[in-house]
Amino acid sequence: MTTQILNASQMLGHGVLHAFYRGNRYHCLFLKATFDWVADGLMLPATEPMPLHLNDLFIGENKEYAASFERELAPLLYPTDLTPFRPKTDVVLIGDAVAPEGKPQREWLARLKVGTLQHGLHVTGPRHWQYSRLGGWTLSDPSPVASVPLDYRFAFGGARTGVQGQTDYFEANPVGLGWLDPQQLDRDQRYPAPQLLLPGERLGAIDQTVSVAGFAPISPFWAPRSHLAGTYQGEPGYPDDFDLRFWNAAPEALQAEPLLKGGEWVELEGMSPAGIERSRLPTYMVWASVDTGGARPRLDPMSLDLVYIDWPKRQVTMRWAAVVDEADGARRIAMHATPLDRSHRE
Hints:
This protein has one helix and 27 strands. It is mainly beta. The strands form eight sheets. Strands 2, 3, 4, 7, 20, 25 and 26 form a seven-stranded mixed beta sheet that branches. A five-stranded antiparallel beta sheet has the order 19-10-9-21-22, with no helix packed on it. The chain has a four-stranded mixed beta sheet with strand order 1-27-23-24. The two termini are 40 Å apart.
């Protein structure tokens, strides 16, 4: 039996039939909407919303250097809208950290808060490791800067030459800075250090490993997500050891459990010359009407599983999702969304 899936809302939406464990199939439904971050704590429906992305979108993809693009190494910009299920709400942000008042500083704190969920970064200007006979490898003071991209290319990680001459990549961030082996370094050269750290973490030695710090989504090819993908043996669907947490792309500190509902206040610090910026997530009632042939359709709530902040555009994209078992025998599924904020109804 073919199930008819309808988008009865004003949002962008889609539904796909997806095979999970042992080939069991589910209708995976989602609606997404983009909102402009405006003054006085308001977010209003965007005049230019984000389109649907049916594949993961990576930094550097479809750009002038696409011929040398390597998907497995590239930072993830936006996770596919066809993500079938997220156990937690992902909160992610792309943009720049901006020094207080926009004036160059050596270091400052960038902080993202949504409801009770909070995560911070220690941001520094450029600095480097350099060698001297008396002091060995020492870290320079940061140079003052007005902004730093909140990009994993500025966090800890990178690549280095292995013992057999091969290129080894730091599995949690192959494009970062500071993953160094002092035995392989040229003492006449300087080596850049990461500019994004977790608050409280400090670099004390050139061979020290620190956390990969950021607000951006994590690539499915990088740890820790790659460790959750399971062991594929060629069977259809997902392997038995596939972990559904794989679909959460946000840093662990920015995965909300219980799920966010909408209406939470969003607070950004260290990302605007104006200081702390605040606004509130819109509130919607979102559901799927599932007609299985009974007297009345079943009403399944759709859960908010993504809050994506594109700070350069001052936009927030939200996604709501639900999963309906194909075994339920649904004839028709209709997705609905009703704004609960008065400003969104007018």
